[in-house]
What does this fold into?
Amino acid sequence: MIEPDHPDLSIGQQCKLLSIALSSFYYTPKGESEQNLALMWQIDEQFLETPFFGVR
It folds into this structure.
């Protein structure tokens, strides 16, 4: 979509043409922490054992 090496348009101009925030172009996701992955795993495991919890 955006060509960083474009000869005529800067990255900012290209983002403006596409209605994309410049910060969105430079954003890099961090990923999940080990602690968060462990918690999600525990929640998943509990749900698979007792999917009826929380149901009236």
